[in-house]
Amino acid sequence: MNFHTQLLARAEQGRPIRVGLIGAGKFGSMYLAQIPRTPGVHLIGIADLIPANAHASLNRIGWEAERSRADSLDDALRKGTTYVSDDWQGLAAHPDVDIIIECTGNPIAAVDHCLYAFEQGKHVINVTVEADAFCGPLLAHKARQAGVVYSLAYGDQPGLACELVDWARTCGFPIVAAGRGHKWLPKFRESTPDTVWDHWGVTAEQARQGGMNPKMFNAFLDGSKPAIESTAIANATGLEAPENGLTFPPAAIPDIPTVMRLRQDGGLLDKKGVVEVVSSLNPDGSSVGYDIRKGVWVCVEAPTDYIHRCFKEYQIFTDPDGRCMVQYKKWHLIGLELGISVASVGLRSEPTGVARYFNADVIATSKRDLQPGELLDGEGGYTVYGKLFPAAKSLKHRCVPLGLAHGIKLIRPVAKDQALTWDDVQADASLSAYRARMEMEALFKGRPETGK
């Protein structure tokens, strides 16, 4: 990639990539921990609802106090330090900021932050993939109109999966399927913040001491986050969503090519060119062994007999016929790898994954029987989980995207495991995120697009 050499040159020239960070939680803190060792990048400012929390994060990761000593963004620019405040609009509007990193984890707020940054002529790296899942194609469209770059975050699994898909296509391999790993059993679908630690592997007290947010971790456990991230992968790569959602087949890494074949060939796929999630647990709860729980993968085919022989000669993981192979990255390091996105956007104006299609959607689905008057509490909560749908199916049935299923009231009963529709809820049409979703639906309606 040669990014490091280019960053060194920018540092020597006194022309660093100037970055603003909105949200200094766990993901943001991991990126902050890497900045002192990254040449050619200047973090001008951090905007957080509670600046004291941002300062606490900086202390936790070992930043020297001098690095965040500034009275304003202009002062930080002169001193080469970082200004911490709660003024995200001032940060996004500052003329010397090149890139805004949206890192709040709040999908409603993230849409506001992205749209405002585009208006100010800023590139955006959107860590809040929940926002990308329900209106990423519209955000990418708005960025192109503004002449700026909108990007997924490298280090998160969607960005890494996009890289593998691009690798496969650039090499000339036909893609069978691609996705991420997950710890999954069907019973996890009903998990709530009260039960998440029963399945996660830590006690409630250990979680409390570690500052682990039960709602956030439950979003992973109940399948919402895998659906969200699979949606982002599909819409960035043009791969399709399975017609009936993710199936979470158990498989060790060497077995992924065998599982990711068409049903008539002995696999589990109804069609090729789809996203899927592989479980690290067998149906009885035992480990599959060498798993891909924390990583990403892509399965490709050998299009000729010669390439088939090459697969055999190099002894890679294939199906029994030797024609389907898996390429994978076993680990993702989240914010510790975000610097790749900053370098790619700042040096080359290239995203590390961007929604170019509207192939997939993650829709709010009831965890239990819901009654009129109840308030939905979004991903990882007590009322709904996210399920992956083909976008055409979601639009046809007027499904509520998971990212907007928070703080809105039900107006009629919904049975357990039923997809929620706009007829079931009292939507808040005043939200810019809601308006963005409606604009996206109108923009893409009747435009089936794939990138297989």
Q: So what's the oligomer here?
A: single chain
What value does the average pLDDT take?
95
> Total helix count?
17
Instruction: Specify the biggest β-sheet.
Output: 6 strands, parallel
- Percent of residues in helices comes to 25-40%
Structural class: alpha/beta
Radius of gyration: 22 Å
Apparent shape = globular
Uncertain stretches of 5 or more adjacent residues = none
Q: For the largest beta sheet, what order do the strands appear in spatially?
A: 3-2-1-4-5-6
**In percent terms, what proportion of residues is strand?**
15-25%
End-to-end Cα distance, whole Å, is 25 Å
The number of E-state strands comes to 15
Written account of the structure:
This protein is of the alpha/beta class and 452 residues long. Helices cover 36% and strands 17% of the residues. The chain is built from 17 helices and 15 strands. The chain has helices spanning 3-12, 26-34, 51-60, 73-79, 88-93, 107-119, 129-146, 157-171, 196-200, 204-209, 214-221, 224-237, 256-259, 305-313, 339-348, 391-397, 432-444; strands spanning 17-22, 41-47, 83-85, 99-102, 123-126, 150-152, 175-182, 274-279, 296-301, 324-329, 360-366, 375-377, 384-390, 406-410, 425-426. A 6-stranded parallel sheet has the order 3-2-1-4-5-6, with helices on both faces. It has a 4-stranded mixed sheet with strand order 8-7-9-10. A 3-stranded antiparallel sheet has the order 12-14-15, with no helix packed on it. The radius of gyration is 22 Å and the shape is globular.
